[in-house]
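Regression test case RT-17, inverse folding.

Input:
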């Protein structure tokens, strides 16, 4: 064999290897071809600002440990198979990331907070996830801009008293924009669609109220897009959470009247939407399959109702009783096998409607205080994660 031909062949192989490596890096969260994105509730570490709520300094683990059944047959407490991990500890977060990828969950959507001119519960991302992820899995932020009410205080669960207000004025909004772009968008593992960082907003009506109306909100969101482009990205992919906090109309906008949720999202420049959980769609009480069928049967309506992409959402269960001294409604009869049925339904919905990218959101990776989590527990072990891997495979 000609030695130069041999060298050339090796060179081509090396280039192809680099190309494949770069392609894998750019699509690291793709798994097979689906983005399985689990909402992550970062409340299981020490947050100094909430020490008055959780004096044991372990976040909501405190109420999970102390939960008791509210009636006969009530499956509480929920006990984590891994124990009460500290998500701000890199070693503990590494276990979460590795396990998620092993079972096909390739994206975390972190609930992200900004209260009283400062971030809240950020250590989970900054000190835990980003310290050990090493571009293994994708992530993006959902700005959970709701009020922090006494709902978080199991000793005083009233929602008419506010600890911290979720609204921000324009000055605080601009600070949030700068922080999100510089601290998160520029991370290689930040989730992007067509190169645009995805940023999800939980309560659009709260954003509008804080910024002083729809026109000022549009100006603020346009500024966010401009700053994202100036940071080197082709644009900003705004995503909305679809529930009652998404206005169905807005008044006082020049031009055509805005009389539907689709009109509202189009006006502000949103490009996609999903749900946070089925509890926002159907009353969370009773049998899991009745609840799940009613919630997922709404997907076809969403497809027809909205001009932007709807990414289907799955919810594992619901039981927020750890947060209440009284008995609240909850879902029963949830099992990994039943959850797997809805995973298949979501996959078919995405495929049949040619949704791209193929994103499916799940509530949640770790909503222990609301009884909806993929993390293994002492009842089902890794059952819910195995259901995900059965349908989608593990991350390559």
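Golden output:
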């Amino acid at each position: 064999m000609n030695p130069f031909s041999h060298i050339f062949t090796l060179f081509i192989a090396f280039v192809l290897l680099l190309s494949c490596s770069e392609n894998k890096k750019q699509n690291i969260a793709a798994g097979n071809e689906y983005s399985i994105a689990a909402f992550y509730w970062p409340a299981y570490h020490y947050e100094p600002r909430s020490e008055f709520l959780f004096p044991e300094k372990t976040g909501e683990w405190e109420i999970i440990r102390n939960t008791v059944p509210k009636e006969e047959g009530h499956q509480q407490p929920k006990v984590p198979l891994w124990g009460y991990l500290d998500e701000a500890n890199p070693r503990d977060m590494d276990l979460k990331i590795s396990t998620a990828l092993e079972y096909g969950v390739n994206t975390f959507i972190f609930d992200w907070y900004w209260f009283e001119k400062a971030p809240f519960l950020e250590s989970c991302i900054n000190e835990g996830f980003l310290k050990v992820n090493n571009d293994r899995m994708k992530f993006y932020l959902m700005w959970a801009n709701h009020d922090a009410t006494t709902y978080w205080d199991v000793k005083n669960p009233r929602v008419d008293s506010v600890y911290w207000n979720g609204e921000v004025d324009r000055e605080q909004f601009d600070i949030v924009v700068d922080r999100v772009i510089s601290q998160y968008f520029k991370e290689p593992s930040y989730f992007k669609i067509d190169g645009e960082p995805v940023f999800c907003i939980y309560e659009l009506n709260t954003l509008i109220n804080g910024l002083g109306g729809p026109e000022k909100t549009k100006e603020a969101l346009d500024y966010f897009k401009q700053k994202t482009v100036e940071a080197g990205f082709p644009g900003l992919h705004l995503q909305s959470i679809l529930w009652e906090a998404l206005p169905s109309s807005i008044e006082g906008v020049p031009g055509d009247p805005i009389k539907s949720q689709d009109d509202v999202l189009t006006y502000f420049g949103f490009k996609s939407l999903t749900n946070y959980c089925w509890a926002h769609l159907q009353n969370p009480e009773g049998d899991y399959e009745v609840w799940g069928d009613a919630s997922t049967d709404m997907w076809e309506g969403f497809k027809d109702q909205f001009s932007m992409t709807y990414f289907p959402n799955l919810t594992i269960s619901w039981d927020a009783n750890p947060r209440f001294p009284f008995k609240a409604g909850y879902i029963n009869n949830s099992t990994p096998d039943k959850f797997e049925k809805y995973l298949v339904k979501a996959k078919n919905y995405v495929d049949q409607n040619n949704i791209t990218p193929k994103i499916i959101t799940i509530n949640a990776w770790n909503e222990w205080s609301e009884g909806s989590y993929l993390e293994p527990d002492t009842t089902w072990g890794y059952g819910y994660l195995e259901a995900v891997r059965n349908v989608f495979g593990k991350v390559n």
